[in-house]
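Weekly sync notes, structure subgroup
Attendees: PM, AL, DS (notes)

Item 1: joint prediction request from the bench team. They want all two components modeled as one assembly rather than separately. Inputs as received:
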Amino acid sequence: MLIVVILLLAAGTYGFRLGGALLRERVVLPAPVARLLPLAAVALLAALVATSALTEGHGFVGVARPAGVLAGAVAAWRRLPFILVVVIAAGTAALLRFAGVN
Amino acid sequence: MWRTADRALIRDIAAIVAADCFVGMSFGAIAVASGLPLWAAVAMSILIFAGGAQFLAASLVAAGNPVAAVLGGLLLNARHLPFGMAVGDVLGRGATRLAGSHIMVDESVAFALAQPDPRKRRAAYWLTGVALFVAWNAGGLVGAMVGSAIGDPGTFGLDAAFPAGLFALLLPTLIRARDQSAAAPARPASTGGAPAGDGTAGGVTAGGVAVGGVTASGGAAGSVTVDGGAAGSVTVDGGTVGDGSGTGRDPAAPWVAGAGALIAVAATPLVPAGLPVLLALAALGLAFVVPVRKAAVTC
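Output from the run, pasted for the record:
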């Protein structure tokens, strides 16, 4: 099952990559489609951020993870390097759990 | 090829590759910690080679929804179609094009488009793509091995690292940054390029990387912003190239992101795992409410 997911995703992604290169002389994407593609990605990623920060299964995940994500988000907002964003988020969550807050 | 790429370019590429190596490491660690076997994390990095889709697919597979993993990942990667249309000329023909297509990521496209002449475009594209492929997969393998050793991701807060990293990748597409216009001086790659850098490959290449908002600060070429990826609106030294709207960041993006996040969280208690993220696509309706032209006024 897992290998099928990986292969389908890999084949499709490669298809997009090569397809664009092959189509480049022939097709111009209609403006509305060209606009919706990146917005769809934005919607998906934002939804992923929110659900993975706040939920586990069908419920609320607890305090430590959202607090860590919030700390990381502030770091990102302040334009700290990516590595610091990730380390601050993980460190905050880990410290809270170490202190017994979950 | 190496001689055509100047020092400033190589330095900028190295900065982003180093950052992406770390993102790749995070992917390996998080994928394994969330329950994927090591081989799957490695295979995804080699075969898919698109950060945002890898993160998305790994979390959806772990949540027990393989169909959403494939559909969501493909949706995220659809931006490579217009990417290919934008930089297809650097790929060459035949076997070279087949190989070159696989290293098409946000970063290699952004760096290629930043170059003034065809030879430099080609050098920048291949240099970035090959270096990223090596760094991304080396990082992924190391991260997966470390992740297996860690066991419970919660202990070290790895479960918080993923949403935070993804947020960092997404952020450039949401805020109207001070230095986003091509007229502004190029900002340092360490702060500008790195967070956006995954998306892609990281992509979280994501986003940022993955989703566009990739800002490559090329020395002599000035700053080039590949915004929103698929829109293909590329601004080079004040002039606009490409078939996008030409307005850069889509003014609807923050609204679509906020609504998508709300929909997904609200749907989580009600529908099967994986589906909330796809339901967030309903937020695209806002794209028709917030007109493109607004950007010209508010920017």
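Discussion: Chain A has two domains: 1-54, 62-102.
Action: AL to compare against the crosslinking data before next sync.
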